[in-house]
Amino acid sequence: QFEAGESRVGVVQYSHDNTQELVAMGDANIDNIGVLKQAVKNLQWIAGGTYTGEALQFTKDNLLRRFTSDKRVAIVITDGRSDTLRDPTPLNSLCDVTPVVSLGIGDIFRNPPNPDHLNDIACLSRPTRPGLSIQRDNYAELLDDTFLQNITSYVC
């Protein structure tokens, strides 16, 4: 159940250098899941690069610090091709603070996600608190009941 007093949910959208946008339960104008969903729908697409490491650090600093419970998880939905040449922030920025599910989705050109980037994001090389790394071909697969049940089982 996603209600302000019971669950904490937030979304960080990102692209290139310093373009992160955050909407979350608990924001001044977001007091229920319906309003949060509308706020997410209202986010505009941001053209540019993929600075995933920077976005994960932003998430750590600006979203996860709000959620002090030890019962939390980050689900990172990405094309899995971070621009690690221009963004020096490590992809494993969240590994010390929360379990991470990296969810790599192929792009409109059918390019697959980079599995090494997904594994770094999900902390798979860490003996403590390894996450989960998943690849899908397109966003429509995120609505599949079996997929949703598997993610829910891992998160809950």
Automatic annotation (TrEMBL):
Organism: Buphagus erythrorhynchus (red-billed oxpecker)
Protein name: CO6A1 protein
SUPFAM superfamilies reported in the protein's UniProt record: vWA-like
SMART domains with a match to the protein in the record: VWA
InterPro entries noted in UniProt: Collagen-VI/PIF, VWF_A, vWFA_dom_sf
Xref: Pfam families: VWA
Span of domain VWFA: 1-151
